[in-house]
């Protein structure tokens, strides 16, 4: 076995493990200068990935491959989300660069692994040695050949030996890298993010090609919608943007939407609204010196995405509009969203925005759309853009995502109101129509509630129900705790009663 002192087996020493990383093949066809720039950026991105996966680490990028030493178990998962890598393999042993030592270590490590299977030995060498790569392949190949068959074309196991100066690294397991180009080498763009399946996938495809992104979200549907979109954006920011700190620009579209409903012919609402979003992304993009706008539009997917409509919308943008999903089917998009990790959240992003009654125009003439849009005073839009909120997505903590959305200060029409106080207090006073449930019972039955309703919970202080509302939100319900508990609610009830009396 590998008891020879000359073999350092990283796993046995401490918790530290060594990973060897190959660059994506595309990098090697670039010019030397471009390659150097790409490599520097890639190492910076890898550093960010390792930092966010915790633990100590070191990176050695002196060779044609990158060597990472780390004790973090999360490292391989993080590395598999760095664009520009083709494979990530764990190094099984580091031995002196001597033919004998390599063959002995290789045999000890891999004889069991190749038994009864087909295999190949591949070796790469740089530096001065009294042997050639071929000698390693032949000798280690022969040593392993007892109960296994060599197959150089399509082996079940590939044993790799990388020899650099005085060290040789042995490894087999390959985890595929995600490919693409290092994030940051292809400039910057803004992505219009709506949180549905499409726009996060479109954004991801741009990230994969090395474009850093900030996100623009036009909120048409309130807090619950925003929370869902922030969560989707956070998946892209935390998991797929190593080497960059993306921001989410949240623009409150209530003002522009009201103006649109008041002035624009309903058939044109959809397309004019989309023009307003393009204008928003253009304005924010200009500030950020972005080169382009990215959207999740796919030809013909919905009525506003006919070719004619896309053409009618386009002139509102002052930056090029990129639509990486143009040729994708919905099923392909959802499959990708699953791999990226946004699918489950996107599925929950209900159609928060239901602005269009009846049939929207499907073949809008550019001039007609522009004429409709010109009925609007665009200063409403400027105001909305100017007062946008900018979120540093990486800095947001899961609790930040939930907390601001847990409390409500009103009871929306049609909401199910649940009183979680003891029976006797409920009998003294409760919100008209409120149902009484014990909080433990509600927690137990959480999954069986009607998903189409909005829930407002209250208790004495609003604290226990805040916890319940958070649980419910995690399950995908729209649920809130009334701020200030029963006292806050009574004040609210009195105000409403007062307002009704005043109106009468
Ligand atoms: P998605 O699945 O991304 O929600 P969709 O199929 O629902 O898209 P549309 O609603 O027509 O299609 O939107 C097309 C694109 O316009 C989206 O992919 C997104 O890039 C952008 N967009 C739509 N709504 C918003 C919004 N509220 N805020 C920001 N961008 C939006
Ligand atoms: Mg949508």
Characterization of the model:
The structure is a single chain. Strands 1, 2, 3, 4, 5, 6, 7, 8 and 9 form a nine-stranded mixed beta sheet that branches. A six-stranded mixed beta sheet has the order 14-13-10-11-12-15, sandwiched between helices. It has a five-stranded parallel beta sheet with strand order 16-20-19-17-18. The protein has three domains: 4-177, 2-Layer Sandwich (VC0802-like); 188-401, HUPs (Rossmann fold, 3-Layer(aba) Sandwich), CATH 3.40.50; 406-503, Oxidized Rhodanese, domain 1 (3-Layer(aba) Sandwich), CATH 3.40.250.10. It is globular. With 504 residues, it is α/β, with parallel strands linked by helices. It has 19 helices and 20 strands. Helix content is 41%, strand content 20%. Helix 6 packs across helix 11 (330-340), helix 8 packs antiparallel against helix 9 and helix 10 packs across helix 13 (366-373). It has helices at 10-13, 32-52, 75-79, 99-114, 133-143, 198-208, 223-240, 254-263, 269-287, 307-313, 330-340, 343-348, 366-373, 379-386, 398-406, 423-428, 439-444, 464-474, 485-503, and strands at residues 17-23, 57-60, 66-70, 85-96, 118-126, 149-150, 157-164, 167-171, 175-179, 188-192, 212-219, 247-252, 293-294, 321-322, 389-392, 407-408, 416-419, 435-436, 454-458, 478-482. Adenosine-5'-triphosphate is lined by residues 192-194, 196-199, 216-218, 220, 277, 295-297, 301-302, 304-305.
